[in-house]
Design a protein that fits this description.
Blueprint: H1 4-28, E1 32-35, E2 39-41, E3 46-47, E4 50-53, E5 57-59, E6 62-63, E7 67-70, E8 74-76, E9 81-82, E10 86-89, E11 93-95, E12 100-101, E13 105-108, E14 112-114, E15 119-120, E16 124-127, H2 130-159
Parallel strand pairs: 1-4, 2-5, 3-6, 4-7, 5-8, 6-9, 7-10, 8-11, 9-12, 10-13, 11-14, 12-15, 13-16
């Protein structure tokens, strides 16, 4: 019980240290990174990379590099353009009205919808079955959780107080 608070504090510090560099780099290079809030790149706007966790991305302007979305969709419309690759996990990609993706498009657990006037310069990979999400996301998280539970079990075994001899 007395080890619970330090472990929680350690988990919070590690999480902050993992997120902080990504946010600071994103501010300097005109990247867009969001957690739970949709991202919109307006027409006439230009950004470098776009990364979204638990949200969707709507592009009407120009993204110089890659767009990556976890748990959301990517919609490219009104002659919007992505200069790099587009990847979604648990969401789809919709290309409308003369939109353009110069790189590859990869969709895990979603659908690719493309207007006939939209273009993709690279390869298209679509794993539309939800089973792929289980294999790619849930299986590694389950293994990681089991590893953490094993480490906690070992620590508790080592620090268990000695029983009094009668």
């Amino acid at each position: 019980m007395r080890f619970r608070l330090p472990l929680i504090c350690l988990a919070i510090v590690v999480t902050i240290l993992a997120i902080l560099p990504a946010v600071s780099v994103a501010d300097d290079s005109h990247d867009r990174t969001q957690f739970g809030h949709d991202i919109t790149v307006g027409s006439g706007e230009q950004v470098s990379d776009v990364t979204c966790f638990g949200c969707s991305v709507r592009i009407r302007g120009h993204v110089d590099s890659d767009v990556t979305v976890f748990g959301g969709s990517v919609i490219v419309e009104d002659q919007g353009e992505i200069g790099g690759d587009t990847t979604t996990f648990g969401g789809g990609v919709r290309l409308r009205d003369e939109s353009k993706i110069d790189g590859d498009v990869t969709v895990f657990g979603g659908r690719l919808q493309r207007d006939p006037s939209a273009t993709i310069g690279g390869d298209v990979t679509n794993f539309s079955s939800p089973l792929w999400l289980v294999l790619i996301v849930a299986l590694p998280l389950t293994i990681f959780g089991a590893l953490i539970a094993f480490v906690i079990w070992i620590v508790r075994l080592v620090v268990r107080p000695a029983e009094a001899v009668a």
